[in-house]
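[job 4417] fold queue: 2 targets
>>> target A
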Amino acid sequence: MDLSDLKKAIESIIFIADQPVSVDKLSLAFPNFERAQIRKCLKDLVQEWEDLDRGFLLSEIAGGFQFRTDPKYSEDISNYNKKIKKFRLSRAALEVIAIIAYKQPVTRVEIESIRGVDSSGVINVLLERRVIEIKGRKEVIGKPFLYGTTSEFLEVFGLKSLNDLPTLKEIDEISQNLEPNITPIEENNETAL
């Protein structure tokens, strides 16, 4: 098998995979090729799909590679297929997921001390949606659960890794550019995402 065939084989594997495919998994599938060769094929494939300017892209996401629809067509896709529900988060859910993403692993009590309100309902919904998971228990009295984000979190938010989260400085810059009269979404329904 030459590099051209390797690239086609990698593309086929990514196409049929139901989760992002990592370089590690591809290395196991192609033991006769070096990781650098596999990475080169992936880089070439990402660029080729971008150059095609089609309705879907090959994206590096959640520690692997996955075909994804072009975000600019998401509304059209939703209009066509009413069964597809947009992943919406309430303000409370966004607050909790942000705390978990930046402070993980973190306990419910630690989340609630930052937010100032009970967060158990929101945590349960985020667990059901599989964007967070229990990472273990904290070694203190009561041994509370420690929560962290999942690879589904990275997929939903289009991140390669947690390192792609905006820094506090970037968040400050974004918030300074927001219109001052934006009214927040009501928080009455904490379990609605």
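>>> target B
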Amino acid sequence: MRIFILFILLFSSLSIFSQPSDSLNRTDNHGLKQGIWKKKYPNGVIRYRGQFLNDNPVGEFRYYSEDGKLKTIINHGSDGIHSTTKMYDEHGVLKAKGFYSGQKKDSLWILSDASGRRIAEERYKNGLPDGMWITYFAADSVTAQIQMWKMGSRDGLYREFFQSGNVKFEMNYTGDKAHGVVQGWLPEGVLQFKGNYNNGVKDGEWLFYTAKGELKKKEVYLKGALLISETYIEEASDETLPIDPVNDPANQLNPEGY
């Protein structure tokens, strides 16, 4: 009797150990993914590993590069819709973390540099920028830029800062177009220029000042067309004027595409 029981236990153990390879990448009679799935690159390195229930990803999924380094960890919620994501660089440093709703970014995303310092906060709704975006100086995490978004369009305050914390530049957007008063300052807090945008183009009076606060130049625009330009104090160059975000190619959505 004991021999029979030992035989049954041994047979059962062998069966258990033989099941995992058969249960990988399994679909049921309806063609729905079930259980653990693991895919590999042509070189045999694992590309991702995770688990499905009725064709929906559940729990943790891990994604790897072709050289076997961890790239992304996604934890899927029980509702099958919401998930949290962490992305890593080639050195294993966390570079981005945030939320998804379905296949679209949602809520807060935090970006970090190679040393792990926070360099940006982005907010999304249904995959579109929505809410306050903040960029930081990586060296000391001082706020460098703030801008407001509304369903994919810049809408509201845009502000840049010097590393000292003083305001460098300030304006507003309406429907993704610069609109209203725009002002820029020197690091010491002296007003450098003041003007106005109307539906994305310069309109009205623009005034420029020296480092001592003296009016040095005036320009008058009508719907983007320069009508008057008067210089009162000659200076060597205007290169120190900050580039307003309307003309700055660096002012765009996160180029890394996280």
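[job 4417] complete. Note on B: The helical segments are 2-23.
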